[in-house]
Design a protein that fits this description.
Length: 51
């Protein structure tokens, strides 16, 4: 059974998280590594923060 955890972030924390994940994604791209998982997580964060 998978357990879901919900975390609330302020707008500042959410922006910080998105920027950090985007920098990590850019590093992966520069090294030629896959970014699918990071992309999915970024989209989830951005989608939830817009609500």
């Amino acid at each position: 059974m998978r357990r879901k955890v919900k975390i609330k972030f302020t707008d500042f924390e959410c922006n910080l998280l998105v920027n950090g994940m985007n920098e990590f994604r850019n590093l992966l791209l520069a090294e030629g590594l896959p970014t699918e998982d990071v992309n999915k997580l970024l989209l989830k964060i951005i989608d939830k923060s817009e609500r």
